Amino acid sequence: xxxxxxxxxxxxxxxxxxxxxxxxxxxxxxxxxxxxxxxxxxxxxxxxxxxxxxxxxxxxxxxxxxxxxxxxxxxxxxxxxxxxxxxxxxxxxxxxxxxxxxxxxxxxxxxxxxxxxxxxxxxxxxxxxxxxxxxxxxxxxxxxxxxxxxxxxxxxxxxxxxxxxxxxxxxxxxxxxxxxxxxxxxxxxxxxxxxxxxxxxxxxxxxxxxxxxxxxxxxxxxxxxxxxxxxxxxxxxxxxxxxxxxxxxxxxxxxxxxxxxxxxxxxxxxxxxxxxxxxxxxxxxxxxxxxxxxxxxxxxxxxxxxxxxxxxxxxxxxxxxxxxxxxxxxxxxxxxxxxxxxxxxxxxxxxxxxxxxxxxxxxxxxxxxxxxxxxxxxxxxxxxxxxxxxxxxxxxxxxxxxxxxxx
Length: 407
Ligand SMILES: Cc1cc2nc3c(=O)[nH]c(=O)nc-3n(C[C@H](O)[C@H](O)[C@H](O)COP(=O)(O)O)c2cc1C
Hints:
- GO terms for molecular function: FMN binding; NADP binding; NADPH dehydrogenase activity.
- The chain is of the alpha/beta class.
- The protein has one domain (42-390): Alpha-Beta Barrel (TIM Barrel).
- 31% of the residues lie in helices and 13% in strands.
- The model has no long low-confidence stretch (mean pLDDT 94).
- Residues 59-62, 93-94, 136, 219, 221-222, 272, 306, 343-346, 366-369 line the site of flavin mononucleotide.
């Protein structure tokens, strides 16, 4: 057999007759009973009909490793590792709802029915570990048609020309303002473009449901299309999608309404926001607190609190652990009946537990720490002295509180 032929033989799916379905990272009953309670990080949480076995969420992370939007064995290995190590929910990377809504030609996409099958296999694997799967639905807006950072030595901001698979003549934003000097030329989105984008979010959500995802998250952060409509620094439209606060939030609300109308009522809908632009004259934390009730009233269950990314001259005052916690806390304190979770710099188990104990969020999102330390959840359990399930295959190496191992 040639290598090509070998590569075309699909891997055998996991066989339940050999491997029991096992909720890795769940607090064991004997541990709960022994201590009179578990740390909040390991207290299960139900959002609509979806029960998370713990409150640790892997934040979406672009891998720039897809071709034509299709996920592959890289994504299975990458996302699967977080499930075998016990994360409660893994949110798959920003997946474009339209082909030209990708950041790079190597982004994942959910703009074709054919994208469903590879994602469904990864979702099914996560489910064998009792880990829930979320998909982040995205449109890159002014940041579309760039090279993958692998091709530009880590630079995210190099325009990818047509000859290399880019689409620099079809990059849309609220107004014809480049995101950065030398970035793609931005075309002002027409009403038809806007209608198409809203429709595409709905189509993508329907595909996500078919793939078995438990959660979808609308990407409203980091300067991508939705965020650029929210901010007066990037949105200078004079129609009903620009100008006043109510007009700038209109695109997000219409996307939310449409997505919620096609996404099952039993499944949670999250929105990720850049809670501030970190720039004078831009979107602020107060704007976020004002926006959240509109989202809640349209069926959003949880706000994933991030910040920045819309203008290159932003000034982030600190990248200390938990720099977005104050935004999550402000929403919790000012808006009823909506959950939140902060992301940003969180690495420490007790810091994360403390955020939950103080009521500053309902869940914790973490990205880079999971790349450095994929066993974070199991190690957090150890540190916080709660016994959790390990994958049956790894039982022989299991640590108990204070680092003791079974022999
Ligand atoms: C490799 C990488 C890829 C990322 N891709 C996405 C993405 O697809 N969607 C998104 O909203 N944020 C993305 N982010 C941002 C993270 O989700 C997270 O918000 C940020 O890294 C701060 O959290 P951390 O300090 O825990 O890493 C990415 C971050 C990294 C490091």
